[in-house]
Specification:
heterodimer; A: mainly beta; 7-stranded mixed sheet; B: mainly beta; 5-stranded antiparallel sheet; 11 strands
């Protein structure tokens, strides 16, 4: 069956611009997660959705970052006024019970 | 706050060797522990998931163990192959998210 998909796979943007990253979870998965991996570093948790609600957004690094989920399906992560330190691979994962997360291929964001 | 550490950070071995990758965590109140493989430029592939009530899981040449009381997990790779070359990540599931280690970068040469 179809796995988690993310788009775009790569995004290059100029400093100060806004970007939107998209995640399509596995159909029927109620939980959705966003993580970030900066070059040479480990994965950092950003935000978690259960259905369309975000009970834990403790990992969002600043108020320039926001995320939403609609229809208990697709999620978008928006970064406003991008900075160079936002350059990273943004990974999305979904989960349906058993606490096992399935990851998408990621979006590589480069801020110039 | 959960901290996950992986040792070694990098490993280079000849084909055929048996390997042990180590993962330690500071908070034993975990729901499960998951091992992933990450290939350059790609996402994460789940290898094994050990529930908190379990001691080990096996899949093919891979075996992962979990000792919650000591805060340790190991991933054993038998008869390593060049195709095993990748970064291996362990992650503990705490409350509502995965906490990742920084990974072990494995290279298996022919």
């Amino acid at each position: 069956g179809a796995g988690v998909s993310q788009s775009p796979s790569n995004k290059v943007t100029e400093k100060g611009k806004d970007v939107e990253l998209r995640c399509d979870p596995i159909s029927g998965h109620t939980a959705l997660y966003w993580y970030r991996q900066r070059l040479g570093q480990g994965l950092e948790f950003l935000i978690y959705f259960q259905g369309n609600s975000a009970p834990d957004k403790s990992g969002l690094p600043s108020d320039r970052f926001s995320a939403e989920r609609t229809g208990e399906s697709v999620s978008t992560l928006t970064i406003q006024r991008t900075q160079q330190e936002d350059s990273a691979v943004y990974l999305c994962a979904s989960e349906q019970g058993a606490n096992e997360q399935y990851f998408g291929p990621g979006t590589r964001l480069t801020v110039t | 706050k959960q901290e996950v550490t992986q040792i070694p950070a990098a490993l280079s071995v000849p084909e055929g060797e048996n390997l042990v990758l180590n993962c330690s965590f500071t908070d034993s109140a975990i729901y499960n522990l998951q091992w992933f493989r990450q290939d350059p430029g790609k996402g994460l592939t789940s290898l094994l998931l050990i529930q908190s009530s379990q001691r080990e899981q096996t899949s093919g040449r891979l075996n992962a163990s979990l000792d919650k009381s000591s805060g340790r997990s190991t991933l054993y790779i038998a008869a390593s192959q060049p195709g095993d070359s990748a970064t291996y990540l362990c992650a503990s599931y705490n409350t509502d998210k995965l906490i990742f280690g920084t990974g072990t970068r494995l290279q298996v040469f022919p």
